[in-house]
Amino acid sequence: MKTYTYKSVGSLALQADVYGADAPGGSLKPAIVWIHGGALIMGDRAGILPGEIDRYLGAGFVVVSIDYRLAPETKLPAIAEDIEDAFRWLRERGGGELGIDTNRLGVVGHSAGGYLTLLSGHRVVPTPLALVSFYGYGDIAGDWYSKPDPFYNTFDRITESDAESAVGEQDLVDGSADPARRDYYLWCRQNGLWPLQVTGHDPVSESGWFSPYCPEENVELEGRNYPPTLLIHGDADTDVPYAQSVEMARRLAGAGIEHELITIPGGPHGFDRAPETASSSEVSDAFDRVIGFLTKHV
Question: Is residue 231 within 8 Å of residue 267, measured between CB atoms?
């Protein structure tokens, strides 16, 4: 693995970890851009599991795991720009330095990374060849995110002052160093404030503002096609409703976009990382289908 800086914002370096790249001059390989989850608030690019890397490398892909700036210190428009800039850097530098065929790029993301994966389908130009969203979402302004969440309100209440003390003012890309950031996320969900805190806009009074950032509203593109999309979701997800992937599949079907929806029966959020489900045959079979899907399209 080798780490590159794909962009700098002031003194903050946004980096990409590249796995499986050959020395310059070898045959060019297709690549997977991997986007970590964490509600756009937590997580980091090191969150990709070694076993997942091995699956992708074994199938002949280079894996590029990227940073993006985190909310609430950075708002969603700038986060989306980071994703676009990472692809721009990869297309400019990947062929010469990394041995990547920059015309053969797919995207894989988990949770909020799944959301950003779906977002890349209509914001990244040229369009990636395939998208794989693990328990992601196509709507960021709906009731599930903009109203108090019943599940998260079974937890101890987080006060506003405790939530605010968990975040700062400076841009950052590593949301794993301080576990208190999860308290901030919990406070957002308990009060239905995630869309407002992450974007700086009110989903009720400014609902139109959110449309360019809701992938389910943007599967029909002008002059180009939304990519073939694989959605994978557990039907017992208490964080991102399973209905989010069902609705995204419905929108893709309505637009005539090639897609699949894999349901993990009884699967929780992060089923591929949860001890009780990660080693199940359903999850193993789902990853086999991911590899097949990416191999077919990328």
Answer: no
Residues of the chain with pLDDT under 70: 23-25
Q: Is 34 a domain residue?
A: yes
Question: For residues 289 and 293, what is the distance between their CA atoms, to the nearest angstrom?
Answer: 6
DSSP assignments along 18-70, one per residue: EESPPPTTS--EEEEEEE--STTTSB-GGGS-HHHHHHHHHTT-EEEEE----
Give the strand order in the sheet containing 259-264: 2-9, 12-19, 62-66, 29-35, 100-110, 130-134, 229-234, 259-264
Name residues whose C-beta falls within 8 Å of residue 254's C-beta, 6 or more positions apart in sequence: 219
| Amino acid 246: pLDDT | 98
Contact (Cβ atoms closer than 8 angstroms) between residue 233 and residue 264: yes
Q: Which residue has the tokens 């990519």?
A: 227
Identify the CATH number of the domain in which residue 76 sits: 3.40.50.1820
**218-240 per-position pLDDT tens digit:** 999 988 899 999 999 999 999 99
Q: Are 38 and 111 in contact (CB under 8 A)?
A: yes
pLDDT for the residue 149:
98
If residue 246 lies in a helix (H) or strand (E), which one and from where to where? helix 242-254
Cβ 217 vs Cβ 119: under 8 Å: no
Report residue 243: phi and psi, to 5°. Answer: -60, -25
Beta bridge partners of 20: none
- Asked whether residue 69 is assigned to any structural domain, the reply reads yes
Whether residue 203 is contained in a domain is answered as no
pLDDT at 96: 83
pTM: 0.97
| Gap between the Cα atoms of 138 and 57, Å rounded | 28
Q: Which residue range is the domain that position 276 belongs to?
A: 2-139+210-297
Residue 27 counted as domain residue: yes
**Cβ neighbours of 147 (radius 10 Å):** 14
